[in-house]
Design a protein that fits this description.
Helix content: 40-55%
Order of helices and strands: EEEHHEEHHHHHEHEEHHEEHHHHHE
Radius of gyration: 23 Å
Largest sheet: 6 strands, mixed
Length: 426
Amino acid sequence: MSIASDTITEKSGYKLHVVRTDKYKTNTLVLKMKAPLTKEDVTYRALLPYVLQSNTNKYPTTPELRSYLDDLYGAGFYVDVVKKGEYQIISFTIDIVNEKFLSDSTPLLEKAFGLLSEVIFNPKKNGEAFDPKTVSNEIRSLKQRIQSISDDKMRYSATRLVEEMCKNEPYALEASGNLQDLETITPESLFAYYKKMLTEDEIDLYVIGDIDESEVGDLADKYVSLKERVPVSLTRITGNEVEKEKEIIENSDVKQGKLNIGYRTHVAYGDPDYYALQLFNGIFGGFSHSKLFINVREKASLAYYAASRLESHKGLLMVMAGIENANYKQALEIIHAQMKEMKQGNFSEEELAQTKAVVKNQLLETIDVSRGLVEILYHNVVSGQDISLDEWFAQTERTTKEEIIAVGQKIQLDTIYFLTEEEVQG
């Protein structure tokens, strides 16, 4: 029996994904818009969903729009902008109570479709321009979000690592956009980009809940009208061979040093050895039983935190550690030693079994909420694959220690980035 899967229907200009399940008490609509990460467009895409969610032609102020959501039994409405691999993805999400649980017969699912359609296709505008006040307000808010990155030193150091490691690659771009381009955006130029996005983006609409598939199909036809398009599909680049590793030390007013290390794995979601890479990362630094946590943080007491994570669509493995500034060299040595241990297969079958259990449990926790399930299913859209959750579980379970050692041989240290308050002696 399938854990969770989506029935996909080709519609005009988009794909409709229906997941019928009684697991959740709400029905959820998620519209995802995907396009390549580019310097020209990144800030437009970062700003646009926030302008669209502020108001519409029918609900011309934010309080009016939010009041309507309250009328729909407290429906939730969210927007988000992220990057996955070399793509920038905009999401619009509506969570609404399943009308089956109500005493009255309010057609809430249809109202959710209607609201999504209103937000996407009927924005508040002035001719061929967005409402100037709305754009001005959202530019100010986005500016604050971009500036806040440098205030959060953990996030700032992770961002700087990617900028240095992926220099001259689209992935170096921050999904939140940049301040310079933000200053040049006008209500007219943003509206022109909005029209371009609606005709060119790869668009996927997910509808999840205890729903009737034919009803969802009819509602989609009624409320979502898009022109046919051939979306841009990028050749996946997981990085060239590393010729020489980089070390970047940056000084700032920080009490705690931030050490970030980037590795090229040359493996991405959908590759046969992706499951082995996931388990490699889990044993190395992904969880509280991992080598980094135990050896850098617990045994050596060198780090306030020490962990690793994968960027599944770019083939990057990132290490993050918060350390005393004076412990840089020692922490680096221990992290390098843990990577060497992994590549040599110095981990037990017990560690492997524990990591398999945690990976599977993490996946189950993710799909405990409908938006998490969408994120799992959307991996297939980004990668152009068709991997079910059942297959993901089965492949994880059957991965051997030898396969994990083999995938480890592909991993190359690329960039070391250290944010510190003092000069570090070489």
